[in-house]
Amino acid sequence: MAKITLEVPDELRDQLVEIGDRLPELLALSLQQPPLPARIYQYILAFVASQPTLEQILAFRPTREMQTRLQTLLVRSKAGELTPQEQRELDEYERIEHLIVMLKAGSLPHVNPMT
């Protein structure tokens, strides 16, 4: 196991002392954040949960924020400038795009629009 020395404010030191030997576990959990902000998943899930019609499914588009961020990631990717976190973010956008394409193609049997 590696040993790391950090300088932290006294208040944080006191909190870390209280945590004790759970610190490695808590650090690992804090690094396991989803690639995208929760609001993006909420936007997509809210749309699917709204039981959209076929027309609404076909018209579904990412938010302007999502489009802008995706464009930025694609430009950085082409330039070879993505950080590992940005690559995970781009990969997640690609997975979401694949799901939306499947939804539009009617390939998700659990989400069948009635009209």
Can you offer a commentary on this structure?
- The chain is mainly α and 115 residues long.
- It has a domain at 38-104.
- It is built from six helices and no strands.
- It has helices at 10-19, 23-31, 38-49, 54-59, 64-78, 84-104.
- Helix 5 crosses helix 6 (84-104).
- The N and C termini lie far apart (59 Å).
- The model has no long low-confidence stretch (mean pLDDT 88).
The tally of beta strands, per DSSP, is: 0
Biggest sheet statistics: none
- In quaternary terms, these chains amount to single chain
Helix-strand topology string: HHHHHH
pLDDT < 50 runs, ≥5 residues: none
**Averaged pLDDT, please?**
88
Question: Which value, in Å, is the CA radius of gyration?
Answer: 20 Å
Number of helices in the DSSP assignment: 6
Give the N-terminus to C-terminus distance in angstroms: 59 Å
What would you call the shape?
elongated
Structural class: mainly alpha
Strand content: under 5%
Task: Give the fraction of residues assigned to helices.
Answer: 55-70%
